[in-house]
Request: fold
Amino acid sequence: MGVRMRLTTVETVYEERSWLFTVRDQHGEKEEVILVPCTDAVAGSRDDAGSGGGGSEGAGSTGAGSAGETTSSDGERGGTAAGAGTDVEAWVNQCTHEFQRLDRGMGAAMRDGQIICPKHGSMFDACSGYCDNGEAADTTLPSVEVAVDGGDVYLTDDELTFLHSGGIDEGDDGDGGPSSTSHLSL
Ligand code: FES
Reply:
């Protein structure tokens, strides 16, 4: 269990659409996390079960009886298992495709309950973190454990230590020193 750290309120997350903060992980590395509203009311359940039409040829004689229509428009499948009583989820603030922050300090772009990557436009489900489209298709954002209690959101991930709200850069408000640690190799 460990200590839980109060981050902000659910209301704030919903108002601002995403709430950025910085943590320190087990290895002492800083990492950015975003809180996003998870509303399963907009669970985009578009599953086109487009199974290819089998072209089986029946060596039939003069029988005109092939009117087998299978219109099975099934209902919606309860998409994400987002029922843990939380309506705020937390994800590492980085696209799974390339190194790209989802929230660049101005709030993440969101539409229909999905987080939109600003670089190539892949969209991640805010509730499940899963992406089924674009460059980042078939990947899931790394999750961070949070809990909602009494309208407040708490960080409950034992492996992470809350440092401050905002992005990594906003923490050390140095006076613009040129001490950027570039990490280029060849
Ligand atoms: S960097 Fe996010 S989709 Fe390419």
Notes: Residues 95, 97-98, 100, 117, 119-120, 122, 134-136 surround FE2/S2 (inorganic) cluster (CB under 6 Å).
